[in-house]
Amino acid sequence: MGYGRWLPAIIIGTLWTCGAQAAEVLRAAFEDKALPPYYMGDSTEVDADRPGVSIELLRAAAKEAGIEVEFVRMPWVRCQKSLQKGEVDAIFNASFKEDRLEFGVYPMAGAKPDPSRRIATVAYALYRLKDGPVSWDGKIIEGLDGPVGAQSGYSIIEDLTRMGIKTEEAQASTTNFKKLASKRIPAVAALVVTGDALLATGEFANVEKVTPPLVTKDYFVMFSHQFYDGKRALAESLWGKLAEVRERDGGKLYAKYSK
């Protein structure tokens, strides 16, 4: 029997198999500074064994949505600029800011982001010198004699500005804490997971956290307008799967990174 009659079937079968195996590749960027337990390590690399809760949640959700994720790490400000230019398809963990709608898309429910499709919920707190004059009662910050340190590109800067508080930006929370410990600034506004981790090192023995939290925010995966406009169904599917995976596996993942 000749091969000629089978050749078209072989070609068609091969093409079908390749098509079935091909997965959409999503290029997702996140910060190159550690934010335990969401992402680990101050590095441009992604830790193979313990990358962080957010990476594991997004990776699992993407798999269920038929998407392969290529992770990229860079400074947070650059993450946002890269999203705006369409150099990356998505960024995370991104809190909601009106001006970010110019360069990216959140999972929306009407005019506001949908909290059920968040990737995480994170709190910011105020940190001061022990026995210092700075106070926060949940409404007003008092006792400041200078700007509050905050990390560049973080949404807390806008929150403080609305409160009439001047800020001094730095590229890393560690830098802000060093300024505070040396009395160059009177307070720092930082993510609780980051600030508490810095206090736990023992390096900043003269610094303490003020309660209650300054603000608690939901964080999201944002898509570029370029990706969302071209692949809206895929983006919506990933947000939906992320909600399912977070509810199903989130508890186990947080427990894993608490050890």
Describe this entry's structure for a reader:
- The chain has 259 residues and is α/β, with parallel strands linked by helices.
- It has 2 domains: 25-119 and 219-257, D-Maltodextrin-Binding Protein, domain 2 (3-Layer(aba) Sandwich), CATH 3.40.190; 122-217, D-Maltodextrin-Binding Protein, domain 2.
- It has 8 helices and 13 strands.
- The strands form 3 sheets. Strands 1, 2, 3, 4, 7, 10, 11, 12 and 13 form a 9-stranded mixed beta sheet that branches.
- Strand 1 (24-31), helix 2 and strand 2 form a beta-alpha-beta unit.
- Helix 2 crosses helix 8 (232-257).
- The longest helix is centred in the C-terminal third of the chain and has 26 residues, at 232-257.
- The protein is globular, with a radius of gyration of 22 Å.
- The N and C termini lie far apart (65 Å).
- The model is unreliable at 1-20 (pLDDT under 50).
| Domain count | 2
Nearest-angstrom radius of gyration? 22 Å
Mind telling me the CATH class of the largest domain? Alpha Beta
Overall 3D form:
globular
Average pLDDT taken over every residue: 90
Order of helices and strands: HEHEHEEEEEEEEHEHEHEHH
What is the third-level CATH name, the topology of the largest domain?
Answer: D-Maltodextrin-Binding Protein, domain 2
Spans of at least 5 consecutive residues whose pLDDT stays below 50 are 1-20
Alpha-beta classification: alpha/beta
Note the total helix count.
8
Biggest sheet layout: 9 strands, mixed
